[in-house]
Amino acid sequence: MLSSSSSRGASSEYGVISITANEGFSPNHPLSGSTSTYGVFKKETKPNGYGTIFRPLAVNGVDLMSVEKSECKMDSEGDLEAILNTNHSIDLFESDFKDSNLEIEAMEKIRQDLRVHERALLRDALLIAKVFHQRVHSLTKDYHLLEEMFIQIDSIATSISKFIQEIDSLQLLNSQSQTGNLMNMMIESIGTAVTKQDALLRNMTTYISALYQLKHSNAAFRMMLNDFEASSECYLPVIWLLIRVLNRLLHWQEACARVVEILLANGHVNGALGTARMAVDHLAHHSASTAPTRKLLYDFAVLLEIESQLCGITPIMHPDRHLLMLGRVSEVLNDGFAPRLLLLFNDVLMVTTENRDAFSILRLIHLSNLKEGSASLITQNSRTCILVDSEEGRFIFTAKVTSLWLETVSEGIRMYHRNPPALLKLQLVLERKGNSEGEINKLSYGRLTLMSACWLRGGTIGREEIHQMAEKWRVGVLLRRLRSSSGWQRLFVLHSHGHLFFFNSHKDSHPLAALCLLEYGVSVPTLHDQIPQRNVFKISHQQLSYFFRTDSHYSFLRWVESVRASCLSRRPLDALTALSVHL
């Protein structure tokens, strides 16, 4: 329980905070063992005249000057948050007192974010245009479309490199005029960037189709592509790397929107605000106009990934086919329950089970054989199980999100009968197709495919959530809490495609490890976790927990927002975390 009181005089201001708890201090700490801790602090102006600090005077009557700084983990300014657990001591004056330089600090964060995101995209673009192209050039030199794709990606890489140099030339954003310079630079760059991105988008479907056809017709190219995607430097399949480059301007739109938000919050009505709004409008229009094509590409990429892990079926790739939902369920059999992975497409419900590095198809339930309402309740409780009656037989399934499956299957049946897709029926085959794939699931640093992640975590993911994951990504430096000590490890972290990829630095050519976020929950540390630092978020799944620390509250909010989009644990945020991220 948190409670507080304060008194303000003419020359000084004081406050008291109370925490009813007995955790948060080490056994040797003078304040340990207290069931109720009271802190008295004094509000003072910073020496430079900008902003305020809260200098602690005493806690439970203990003079803080007599307590070792290493024990209290105090910083040079004696910040109250260094004594009380960061995530359980609310900043009482945050809404009442604002530092006058917060606006400039936030703008500088946006500039740094732009720079680090562009640098990560440059790495991806060069990975395709240089590294991958060099490996397969002997096989693609006679394929005009693929060579054209490499040229376009290389051109975008050059554009990204130039933009990074322009960002660096601004140096620190230490004034409002510098903020205006950033917006002017972005306005000047948007036109060229949109032209290049549109040219790539117009042809991307053709390029990916050419890659797919060459992969299935040329054994040597297929082997090279599989080897490249299984290598440590290629942390994502080539098609998803292409999509990341294609989505470059989505982060620009977010950055410009943040600038508008900050300027409006600080009362600006002219200057950089008008330029920022112009940039947001231009980028938002481009995003909306390209959204349908981008979503088709996401669907195509998902089908390509799924097909690489399926065995015992004819090829599933088709422009009119897309995945509606994927997840692990339990099938009710006469002798008990059996784990299954369900794949609901817009024309068929596929029942599979794991088979080493792949998934074997047990049966296909075509939606053409189902009528609306055929996926009906077997009990009165929609959370218990569903019954599917079809020409293929009667099947009963249970899942953690049975009601969601019921709703999605029913909607899929309605959509099919309302507008049947022109698709040939998929057929089961006796043997696995000749080309051996699935290598991507064996990567040493732990990246999981959607199917493998849902199978291992018992998760479920829908089409819209996959689209969201494709567009939510973040990159930057995080500190990871070490389990063996109270220390922190500095890592360069890339969040993309539902994973956290960990690098020693941005110069590394391959990640040290990867963590799939599906079914993880996001929260702030509890008092029991004994994390006294600021801006720390926690991701957890069952008994596993990881703590990550950012360098600012701005970065904390952006990371939590981005990571939440990939976790899909369907667990609501606890009240404390919701307060921390202002939801």
UniProtKB/TrEMBL annotation:
Pfam families: PH (PF00169)
Gene3D superfamilies in UniProt: Pleckstrin-homology domain (PH domain)/Phosphotyrosine-binding domain (PTB)
Highest taxon of the lineage: Eukaryota
Signal peptide: none
GO molecular function, one term: guanyl-nucleotide exchange factor activity
GO biological process: regulation of neuron projection development
UniProt xrefs under InterPro entries: DBL_dom_sf (IPR035899), PH-like_dom_sf (IPR011993), PH_domain (IPR001849), RAC1-GEF (IPR051835)
Segments forming domain PH: 471-568
Protein name per UniProt: PH domain-containing protein
Taxonomic lineage of the native organism: Eukaryota, Metazoa, Ecdysozoa, Nematoda, Chromadorea
